[in-house]
Amino acid sequence: MDEEILKSLLMRAKGYTYNEVQEEFQKDESGEMALVRRKVTEKYCPPDSAALKTYLELNRDASIVEMSDEELEKERQRLLEELKNLEDKK
Question: Which of 36, 65, 79, 88 is deepest in the core (most CB within 10 A)?
Answer without folding.
Answer: 79
